[in-house]
Specification:
The structure is a homodimer. The relative contact order of chain A is 0.14. By secondary structure, chain A is an all-alpha fold. Helix content of chain A is about 75%, strand content about 0%. Chain A has 18 helices and no strands. In chain A, helix 3 crosses helix 10 and helix 13 packs across helix 17. The interface between A and B is large, with 77 and 77 residues.
Chain lengths: ~525, ~525
């Protein structure tokens, strides 16, 4: 009998209490974040995590040490509801021109880079953890650790770089973050499937090949969904009757691309990202004027709420007293584990950012190429050190069963992940803003004349700092780079021609080759 | 161990399949709805229900008769996630001037009307059900049936009336729907709490008093949350930095008002409705220009998606084979039950719309008063016959435990509710559009001169059709109405003065008394 249920007393739905508290704290975070916008020393997401920690402490005290969280970290919530709008908005708002100009570099960092970082962290933990007396992880768990700690936190990184101020750097760091997140998840997945006893030299190549297949099919799915949305909007001309229907269709189709990708065992992140790019390139132009203003803000607002939600969530999870009680290892060992992980994260990222930047500089050419100076490399390395919600979600997936674990080793890995995420987000988040301000202003002063040179002549020197000392090497590199880059530029030229002649008339968008937002 | 979980294979989260199918069908419904907008014979929500039915049949066939739904009807989903945005948007978009001018009439219809309808349906079922051999319901279940079938479906009703064409009628039917929905839920709740053996003459008054207390406290909470949002936006001037933050704060505060109301055992519907009114009156004016465009569309888009979702849901639930198998009563009895319920719904609504309209006409006065002609009364009666998601949710709450029931009588009540909702929405939804078009055009032609007369002189005849025949009665009525109405107009005058002098400078909004949207 349902007599026990009193409907309008929805407080009996157990989640209403959590939702109320969470919404209230979320509102508070938004206000605080606004107040902090002009602050030099922190960003609003660091503040949100801090507020999350405080709420966690308050709840811990109110519940007399029993529980510190009102919502348990839930992978489903994160991967199915919060991540898609963030990634879609990223694709929708990204400056496409710069993104595709840096495409090769982005793929180098995002795919190859993660593999390098993964290798260093896996090998490092496997070698160092037993030395400080922390044992109990299996081989494939060490491998999974590598994947968990190789994923850069796109969301937080973007907070410290402004697209308007440093468009090239932004598109690089941002693009890397998207590919990087996808790679980490794919890698994590692949690791759980491979047979740990059969790991050999070929495994890395198999993983890389798997990744490339997955990435390209996922991208194609996203492009297909984006194009069909654009075609539908253009054919039926929705704006005639209703703006809402237009916006609703774009939102639902974007979400559909993500869930279908997950359903087909593809990776939803590149799918929804490229769906966003295609939608902003074609579908957006088919909408009415008010829809255009609305979509731009609706997607970024939803994304903003999801981001704030995630950081609050992570902050609240810090004082998860149950997991801390469960760890059962000493303060020294805890410190050791966290220190090793942090150093490996630093090293793992350094090991690919600097070499791959130099490689990218060597093969880069064209009228609007980006020379990644050492200062830029440093910022890319630094800004990408932050670990975020993806790491947490992967760690929870590996080491817990629906957010609960009874194994001390596993509990330690969870708390360590939270510590690393918290430390990198807070500490690095706080110092990145002044660092970027300082380096970028200097770098722009140094770089400005070079950009103008390279615009005048596509075959001028490609390396900026080492220019005078390496002139012999330079000549060889230059020939190589022209050889390597020219097909990409030809592709881009033909793409624009094809786009104007065939794609835009069918799917929408300005038919003049002028504007690329 | 979590080895079994493969993360990026989120298909293992069981809901991904349902979400994918549902999103895809939702997109399809939006496109179909757009195509049908200019159709004379149907509205898009009837089409959505129809598509839902078709999907249900397809799923039924694919699952070989086992199951017809991909998502079980979930009260929590409905009351916590889908209903708040719809009601908030209703408050945000409503023409406040007309709404408050008709406030007395709306409250008459929404509160007293539901009580009359509730009484007729409860008494009717209690008297007629045993006569056709359908027994097994307890006294308070008969009472609950009255509440379940007294709630008008606001969402669908609004589809057939256009705010631009018939603003007075729209604000009446719409306002009634909101108050009506709240009353039904409150009533339903109150019934489950009262002792069935103690029902007497006083019960109705206790219920009415409970309702009035609840309604006024809920309204005050909504107004308070709306005002604090407006004050925050005005004080901090969010638009300076970010449109997203502004919009996000408005969305979250609105939602907060709803969940807090539910948490405090108040009724969330009037809370979030008045929160919407206050936000559009004050907070909206504090936002930047792009935020204003965005909020207007963001709320209506989310509301639109939620509405479509609900209708699709209801449509899919029709062929819930488990419940149909469970009913165990003959075709004749099923038909009898549904017929009785439908007739009682018709009668229950007629019993309050016509008398209360006449009462409202008698006490109505002022320069912009609305005379509810017989044709208008007929449309109000007809348009409000539709039963919708609120009825379904209440029925599921009463007769099932988390969507499942093993009692044949309860299963019958669930299927009957679905049949009534489907029948009223489809049949009445189809015929309302031509009916309204025909009657409104005639009514407007008849009504136009009267409105102009009443604008010239507030004390001219108040009753429109019976004017010449009832002149003696009229004079008495006129004196009465001036006596009754003049305080309301004085209140309105002082409110505008107070609003301009104290409220708007603090909470925002244009300080000239000119524009009321």
């Amino acid at each position: 009998m349902a007599v026990d249920f009193f409907l309008s007393n929805v407080a009996e739905y157990p989640r209403v209490v959590s939702i109320s508290i969470f919404t209230a704290v979320l509102c508070f975070c938004i206000v605080i974040g606004h107040v902090l916008v002009n602050s030099r020393w922190t960003n609003e997401f660091a503040a949100t995590i801090f507020i999350g920690c405080l709420s966690g402490i308050v709840i811990l005290l109110l519940s007399r040490g029993k529980s510190s969280h009102i919502l348990r970290f839930d992978e489903e919530l994160f991967f199915i509801y919060l991540l898609p709008p963030i990634i879609f908005n990223a694709g929708f708002q990204v400056k496409k021109k710069q993104f595709f100009h840096n495409f090769v570099t982005i793929m180098l960092f995002g795919a190859i880079g993660v593999f390098i970082s993964f290798f260093i962290i896996s090998a490092g933990t496997w070698w160092l953890f037993p030395k400080i007396g922390f044992e109990g992880l299996t081989t494939w768990q060490y491998l999974a650790l590598g994947a968990i700690f190789s994923s850069t936190d796109t969301v937080c990184t973007l907070q410290v770089l402004r697209q308007e101020e440093t468009p090239h750097l932004y598109s690089l760091v941002f693009g890397e973050g998207v590919v990087n997140g996808a790679t980490s998840i794919v890698l994590f997945n692949a690791i759980q499937k491979i047979n740990a006893s059969k790991i050999g030299g070929g495994t890395a190549f198999i993983l890389l090949w798997d990744f490339l297949c997955l990435f390209s099919t996922s991208t194609m799915l996203g492009v297909a969904v984006g194009l069909s949305t654009a075609y539908t909007l253009k054919t039926f001309y929705f704006g005639r009757h209703s703006t809402d229907r237009e916006v609703a269709l774009m939102m639902l189709m974007a979400y559909l691309s993500y869930v279908v990708a997950e359903l087909l065992n593809l990776s939803g992140i590149p799918t929804v990202f490229f769906c966003g790019i295609v939608m902003s390139h074609y579908a957006w132009h088919n909408a009415t004027e008010s829809s255009r203003v609305t979509t731009r803000h609706i997607f970024s607002t939803i994304s903003f709420i999801a981001e704030t939600f995630i950081f609050l969530y992570v902050g609240m999870d810090v004082f998860d007293i149950e997991k801390w009680k469960m760890t059962k290892i000493g303060v020294k060992a805890t410190f050791g584990v966290n220190f090793i992980l942090f150093i490996l994260v630093l090293l793992g990222r350094a090991a690919f950012v600097f070499p791959l930047s130099i490689l990218s500089n060597k093969i880069s050419s064209g009228p609007e190429r980006l020379i990644i100076t050492f200062k830029h490399q440093f910022i890319i390395w630094w800004a990408g050190l932050m670990r975020g919600a993806v790491s947490i979600a992967l760690a929870f997936n590996l080491f817990t069963v629906s957010g609960v674990t009874w194994d001390p080793v596993h509990a330690t890995m969870i708390t360590s992940t939270i510590v690393i995420v918290l430390f990198t987000t807070l500490a690095i988040g706080i110092f990145t803003k002044p660092l970027v301000n300082k380096l970028i202003h200097q770098a722009q002063r140094n770089n400005q004349p070079q950009t103008s040179i390279s615009k005048e002549d596509p075959t001028t020197p490609l390396l900026s700092i080492e220019e005078s000392t390496e002139s012999n090497l330079l000549k060889a590199t230059r020939s190589l780079s022209i050889l390597l880059e020219s097909p990409i530029h030809t592709i881009h030229f033909y793409w624009r021609k094809f786009d104007n002649a065939y794609m835009r008339p069918v799917f929408g968008g300005p038919t003049s080759s002028g504007g690329d937002r």
